[in-house]
Known about the structure:
By secondary structure, this protein is an alpha+beta fold. The chain contains ten helices and 20 strands.
Amino acid sequence: MTYKTALEWIGTQQDKMLADVLSLSNLNSGSANVAGIEQVVDQLSALAASLGATEERIALPPRSEVLDNGQILEKQSGPLLRLTKRPNANRRVLLVGHSDTVYPLDHVFQTCRHLDDNTVNGPGVADMKGGLVVMLTALQALERSPHAENIGWQIVINPDEEIGSFASAPYLDEAARAADVGMIFEPALADGTLAGARKGSGNFTLIARGKAAHAGREHHLGRNAIAALARAMALLDDLNGQHEGVTINLAKLTGGGPNNVVPDFALCRFNIRVPTPEGQSWAEQQLELIIARINAEDGISLELHGGFGRQPKVMDKAHEQLFALLRSCGADLGLPPIEAKATGGCCDGNNLAAAGLANIDTLGVRGGAIHSTEEFLLVDSLSERAKLTALLLMKLASGEASWPERATTVR
Ligand SMILES: [Zn+2]
């Protein structure tokens, strides 16, 4: 088999891969740490240098954040890194990763340590600095093989995945529409199980404004923003269980002031998860009805911010086809059967699917306890998963495997 040399080369890279992951993970790159993300991007760019791709660092527009007092603040993101090779090839692969982590600069979890020979605990080792190293190593293997010339590829590494990819979403969408298959390097579960279907997710902030008044002298002149918001929230909570798989989580409530003042301001935050586009339309409709109903009250105004940043990722025929191909690659490498499990969590795989691009989004390392101080990486999965992606790339590039069909109805 013509893939053997490239796969064997990956085997020789295991120690270097681990060293690269440790060095990347010891750099803090919480989503708000722009300087840290720039440092991580510098390191990634150096690691990718031998690939000979065209590099761009793209400054993203600021994202707006609604503060607890209703003020809207503009926040800066780090740079998006884009690397492109053979853009005019007939067949193109999009590889996506993120440079940010969930751990801010002042978090207690900042450095890596070995728990045993095969387990490293550290911030981002699995989610997803390990995955970024897997991606770059797999591409190096592809480029060492004779099949590379048949395909083009693009890497997009965004700095804001952990906060919903709002600023980078247009770039993901653009890249997804120009590609034939998508690969994302979020971690697999410790046993190698991948994520299949993913729910869509919307984050919302609802602000209620009423009219302040003295609670004793002129209570009747006041319009209570907290009471109005509470009525809206109760209606929102009642939506749970009304539509298959749609859930609403009221997450935060703030507002009001002294006991003798009718409050004129209240704010709540909530999340909605939807399994299908139909579920999403239903939820959007219900949300509109509830807001209209409370807005009709005398002296009350509701203002909604946010939206569905992640559309549902449904396992359609193209995704089934791609997973079948990956399973065959796993079998060729002697790995245990690769399972895919539906999840309520979401990632950039949702965005690529919404642009009509079939993708597997958990091609990164095996690991677990992500988003906690227990986050771990199983070290032997570095070269194992790089071989898996390299074989997938080479089978597509050589023409041995057929490419997944593009979705005909793009949302
Ligand atoms: Zn991640």
